[in-house]
Write a structure and sequence with these properties.
The complex is a heterodimer. Chain A is an alpha+beta fold. Among the domains of chain A are: 58 residues, Uridine Diphospho-n-acetylenolpyruvylglucosamine Reductase, domain 2; 101 residues, CO dehydrogenase flavoprotein, C-terminal domain (Enolase-like, domain 1, 2-Layer Sandwich). Chain A has 13 helices and twelve strands. In chain A, strand 2, helix 2 and strand 3 form a beta-alpha-beta unit. In chain A, helix 11 runs antiparallel to helix 12. The longest helix of chain A has 19 residues. The radius of gyration of chain A is 19 Å and the shape is globular. By secondary structure, chain B is an alpha+beta fold. Among the domains of chain B are: 221 residues, Aldehyde oxidase/xanthine dehydrogenase, molybdopterin binding domain (Aldehyde Oxidoreductase, domain 4, 2-Layer Sandwich), CATH 3.30.365; 162 residues, Aldehyde Oxidoreductase, domain 4. Chain B has a seven-stranded mixed sheet with strand order 3-5-1-12-9-10-11, sandwiched between helices. Chain B has a five-stranded mixed sheet with strand order 7-15-14-13-8, with helices on both faces. In chain B, strand 20, helix 12 and strand 21 form a beta-alpha-beta unit. In chain B, helix 5 crosses helix 6, helix 9 runs parallel beside helix 18 and helix 17 packs across helix 18. Chain B starts with 20 loop residues before the first helix and ends in a 16-residue tail after the last helix. Classes of the chains: A alpha+beta, B alpha+beta. At the A-B interface, helix 13 of A face helix 3 of B.
Amino acid sequence: MRSFSYRRASDPDMAVRALSAAAAANNPLTKATAQPLAGGTTLIDLMKLDVMRPAAVVDINPLAHAWSAIEPDGEALRLGALAKMSDVAAHAEIRRSYPVIADSLRLAASAQLRNMATLGGNVMQRTRCSYFRDVSYENCNKRNPGSGCAAMDGVNRMHAVLGTSDQCIATYPGDFAQALIALDAVVEITGKAGTRSMPFAQLHKAPGSTPEIETTLQPGELISAFSIQGRWPRSVYLKARDRQSYEFALSSAAVALDVQDGTIRDARVALGGVATVPWRAREAEALLKGEKFDEALAQRVAHAAFADARGRRHNSFKIGLGRRVVARALQQAVTMEI
Amino acid sequence: MTAAAPEPKANMGRPVPRYDATAKVTGRATYASDMPLDNPAYAFLVTSAIAKGRIDRFDLDDARGVRGVIDIITHENAPKLKEAKLFSNGGYAGTTIQPLKSAEIAHDGQIIAVVIAESYEAAREAASRVKVSYTATAPSASFESAGTTTAAAKGQNAQFKEDPVVGDFAKAFEAAEVKLTASYDTPTQHHNPMELFTTSCAWMGDNLVVYEGSQYVYGLKNGVAEQLGIDADKVRVVNPYVGGGFGSRGSMTPRTAIIAGIAKRLNRPIKLVPTRDQGFTIATYRAETRHEIKLGASRDGKLVALRHEGAEISSRPDAYCVGGTKTTTRLYACPNIESLVSIVRADRNTPGFMRSPPEVPYLFALESAMDELAVKLNMDPVELRRINDTTTEPIGGKPYTSRSLMACFDEAAKAFGWSQRSPQARSMSDGDWLLGYGCAATCYPTQMAPSAARVRLQRDGRTRVEVAGHEIGTGAYTVIAQTAAERLGVPLEKVAVFLGDSDLPPAPVAGGSNSTASTCSVVMMVCDQIRQRLFKAVMPSDSIADKAKETVGISPAPSTRAAKGDRPLDIEKAFDALGVGVVEEYGEWKPEGAPLDSFRALHAGQPRFVGGHQMKDKIAYAFGAEFVEVRVNRFTHEIRCPRLVGAFAAGRIINPRTARSQLMGGLIWGMSSALLEATEVDERNARYVNDNLADYLVPVNADVPGVEVIMLSEQDDHINPVGAKGLGELANVGTNAAICNAIYHATGQRIRSLPVRLENIEV
């Protein structure tokens, strides 16, 4: 861990100024010399591991009074980026109208972490790839662009089978993001020029040839809120993992359905634990729309979701697992009492 | 009484609360790195990023530029230390690989530099700025790697004396009506005690104090002295509390003498707190093992032939092995037995003891094979154990001092509801989950070692017990206090116990589950010396005194009839008769059959174990039976273990509360070793990959919702004065097999390789 300066942001403007002042052109956000601190559950870890070496840390927790509201209004939902995971997971209306959100948060991390971590920080958490997190490995394209990838032929059981490139196979580790991408969430971003909005689906970037660039956020920009249109009471988050709690997904599915008179009007399927970014399985969703649900359809959908998956030595099992998780999540969503 | 404090049965003491409970839950218990030092400097380790090769050069400019850096120690300027001899060769060390001696790298994560700074933060930052150039050569990581060498354990490891054999295995196996041949393997595991591998060293002139979590303060004291080339009397090791050991602190690691040497040169106390990931490579671990089991049986289930071949990984220079065939060849009646243990050398740090070192991997193989045999015989696995139960071990024909194996099976089966099990595999389910019930035997050798103690009794009944034993979380303070209170007849709250200091009378290593038997036996003996003095002082004759001291208590309350020998002794009167204010006794105890050099070795920090199969004319083991319910999800294949039930018999239970806690922790660890724990080795570079507690999985509460511990009443007068069998390493044995046996029952799929992950299930 390197020495760093610490400042508390008094208001959004000050935070944005402090973060953009340190930004350098052509430098990925993750390498920016100033980093925002919210719950600290990822940033502090990575600093202690010497993976991230910001010269300045800007504590944005003082913005919580403005940025942590949980506002379901019956037709839409707005979540402040500094809301704590535990508060959102426990919110009665979220549990009723957006169970996929409540469960994705409830099944993540541990109680202690959920009490600290914020929604904005959660979606920005970085991969758990062991080689990325251990700086004694030179060859990590994400840390040292162009240096190679130690995971490609290494211990890659936890790694991604979707959205990979020949540069990087690191898994996006979060749960909540799958719920957001499934529900077509919009992310509100506060920057120098005020706020802008974009689909959450455009926030993360697949590794391609630039795995060091993980999001489309610019230095000096902060996520201030998420919003979702409509209610999604028929939605589930199913997570398969090695232990019963406090563990990342080997495979997860966020499923949201609109079923009327036995016919699926709208369907959303997103995948976690298997992809390099929050993953929307749109081809799979298309198979569901206008259909009546049965097990055969679930199987076709599950196969479509992983049609482009590519396994490596230790993680090929995630393809079969992922299909079963999707099929089971669909079944649960169809049969759930709402 | 509560679940945590079970009602004592016959031959059990009271479940009194832990002696150190308040200190621990209020944070007042001082662990080694909590000890205040006068103006310390802070050390941070730099460890190797390659497993084999050499360091070409260091670039230290950037690191030295960090404000507060005092010095950076590498092989080029390290204090010269003497060789560290392996514990199994009469030394103290767990490895002979001595870092900072040359540019050579022998394993991943070897210490290659030590940064010394004015603060921990500066030392850590500078360490991250040390640049190292290596010439790496391809290492051999494990069994599958090219370049390993394999040889029989016998002949290269002084502590592995025999490959047990009896009868004619080959002939009997050939002729057996039912045969089974199966291979099993177990993974690399690391202890990961909560307390990191910290060391603080402070010199006062020529005298050194080492604050370090150790399971053997006398071993560490003598070992550090040997490496520094100074008299052992100049070294004191202090650790009143140890934050978990599990074997990882049983032998000396290289870090201690290095830090001591640097502190001497700097003339300043030094405090080292390594990181969690460094703990994977600067201490020991449980090496991966492979097994082949051959069982031959008659149709009615009687074993006629048994062969167990094991292979274990060790480092290039050190022939460490656990050699569990000493136990697996003696567990069941069988006339024809053969065994062989081999050591496979790779470019790894030297492995070492980890909770039940031989039994965890070797009983996994045997108890899995027994279940497979039961399936072949179409027989209840409990009945197969009953048919092959024995009161004499088959190799030497020696009788077990006591053996409650089947009583444990019957008690645990009843509590578990084994009779509800439908015998067919894949025949039970509950919604999304396939259900499986499985069981296995556990056993652990009963071991004792010479120990010394000092006990001081005051007129008011206040008692002080001193023994250089170790509180590694097991309850050592508590059971020693109970033993002294009971023997002297003084109230428990008047007893103060002092442990974890090499200035106290020597005790053996807290290993092999010997501590309670050894330290409580010597404390009993020394308390009896005090009783002897007191009774002689007030009894009309020696013969009345001798009789009375066996049977009556001591009481600070005056009693007129004390002299007749049937009422508690009046302490005041006895002290007056003796004309003293304090009675203090020191004593040294050794178990029956201990070698002649026992007491010399005791002070030299070398334990002389007696017990298990190495006793004359008898064999002593504790036994248990474990039953588990496993659930396998039809869709995700996730494996969960909602219920663990174990019944155990281990002689006298001094404190049912602390004993239950040990057994419960053991069951949980046993489950963990089947389903969660494994250190991943990158076979390309022989490096540990998941070297942190996020990726090295241990159970969380949600993984162990139901753990039931049953302690059977057992009396054994043939083991040691307290009649206690060690149980700290009993419950985590066999659980791994019980889990795999239950997975077979749930799914019809036999899994012979640990840990079992969801991808191993093909439902």
